[in-house]
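User: Second chain of the day. Same drill as before.
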Amino acid sequence: MIEFKNIELEDKSWVDQLLSYADYGATEFNFSVLFIWKEIFSTQIGRFKDFLIVRFAPQGASANEVRYFFPAGRGDYREVIEEMMDDAKQLQAGFMLVSVLEQQKTILEEIFPGRFSYTANRNSFDYVYLAENLISLKGKKYQSKRNFVSRFKNSPNWSYEPITAQNYMECLQMNREWCKLYGCLQDSSMQQESCSVKSALENFEALGMKGGLLRLDGNVVAFTLGEKLNSETFLVHIEKAFAHVTGAYPAISQIFLQHQMNVPYTPETELTPENIGFKYVNREDDTGDENLRKAKLQYHPAFLIEKYIVAELEK
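Assistant: Same format as last time:
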């Protein structure tokens, strides 16, 4: 039997250990993501031997309607998945996994042939980029991005600084202003995202996140938060900028990543995974938002991480 609990900051060390065994490069397999969205999805976690089990409720779900992520860790997959199935039965819920990766799908098909249906969920696909491309923005395909960054840097009185305990409140204030400006009160998904941003900023040090902000004439006009996701990938959790500030979005993206490198960045720096500290940058999914999808594709991802909804077939 798996014992589930509400996720707390104190769980980070053991959750991170189990996640490191799997070393997945997808957004869902990260403690910070689970933590900052926990209130919205009623997320609970449990441990079964060397596996992390995540259970949550979809939006608008009934009391016995739950979903699971694929178990992250090491050991006997058949044993742990059967335990998860038993948990769903106890809740009188159908067993369903979401955000299942291609390699996880292969494991399921090998262990339980013909038992599940698999439906690709394009809205949850992660966008993954070569770190060297986002840091340098070199080449013809990034010409427009370089132009916008230059226009921002040509503005007088701009500056970059890391997010710290002394300035994170200014990012919270900017997030509130951003919400008022772009209509969070009229959009439930934007309200939910705003809550997750607030949680991330208020707990960024305990979560081990790194952050950066841009000022223009002393005012915060953009900020971002991220962290190392696995052995070769940096995950950008949050990126906010005022759209009316020309070039603020591409500028915070590029400058922040330059400051996360293992070595000081200059235009002449050789951009190797060793110098950068990571090979890829995961910028999460687009949630099906067409404008966001277009923006993410304009940065030319190296690949998308495909994810599936997995449901048990009726016997």
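The chain has a mean pLDDT of 95.

User: Great, on to the next one.
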